[in-house]
Amino acid sequence: MNAINVERLLAQASEQAGGLDDFGPGNYREALRVLSDSLAREANLSPQGAQMLQGKLQAQLVNRLVIQDYCRRHPEILQERVEDPLVIVGLPRTGTTLLQRMLATDARFSSAAWWETRYPAPLPGEDVRDPSQRIAAAREEVAQMIRFIPDILAIHPLDAMAADEEFMLMEHSFLCAMDSYANVPAYTGWLAQQDHTEVYACLKTMLQFLQWQKRQRGEKPAQRWVLKTPQHLHTLEVLFRVFPGAQVVLTHRDPLQTIPSMASMAHTLWKLYADDPDPVTAGRQWSEQMRRGTDHAMAVRDAMPAERFLDVRFEDTVRDPFGVAQAVYRFAGMPLTETARAGMWAWMESNPRNQRAAHAYTPERFGLSEAQLERDFAGYRARHILNRKPPE
């Protein structure tokens, strides 16, 4: 594909947004240029994939314009209090989705459903109090993804109406997560050198806007947000700076199990957009990224007060979800009420893990070996896996 003309993309977004031209603060132009060049030179996108990604970028630019306009017309949006989220952070495949969705059944927690992270701003002509157009679009998009790659449900339980990761909100900075969709090593390398403060400033504004929209829909205000994405492994110190009241639940599982599974997930996403993406490239690239992420998270943790963190093991979440929930609520300083417990139980009854298809893969397909993973994650495994303490 040819490189995306960034200025033309910005102009098209402005036209689509009815002439709005304030995209808000940030280094989005340079980020888009670096990403566009990397996509053109490295990603081997299919014609359909190139069209889909360009459409995704344009939609995110439109969202920036619309959200900036709402914040200008409704300055109270930026007064919404979101500074103290409970944030679930860990390697992919460590039970983060189970834990977040279980907690999200409690009305005292705010969460963003997949449709909200995909369509955070009202569509043209849509009443902010009635997001039915966005919900319908999200449902159809999820259905299309499942039709195109049925295996994706064995990897991640996609559901337009369920709580999901905030990385699609963070993507609006264009400084986050785009390498989840395509092989863009030049962009990834550039990204590692950037200041991610604006990513979290963008996330904060997005959460404030979503919270304000919930108010307009008549939803009862919650006490705090529950968030989760592995992206935070690389930037925990920025998370705490922008969200000073944040508490972090760190989820753990042996990388010998999680990294090959995560490589399969990344390769599956790449297949949505690229012609015959290389599984070995996906495996080695994401293994290295997760190694850097876990090393960085351990270093940040060592420099901060211990009470900001809670460790949760995947095996405990699966074996005793209510015991883990009790520990999380104790950590958060919130009582685990009978109402909350009943909501969690009802959700678990409706979403049993054994209904999902088995996720079939081999580490070797992704260029991974047990010896390499033991070496690369030696520090993390020594601290969190091999030296396991019995659950409290």
Automatic annotation (TrEMBL):
GO terms for molecular function: transferase activity. This is Sulfotransferase family protein. It comes from Cupriavidus phytorum. The lineage of its organism: Bacteria, Pseudomonadati, Pseudomonadota, Betaproteobacteria, Burkholderiales.
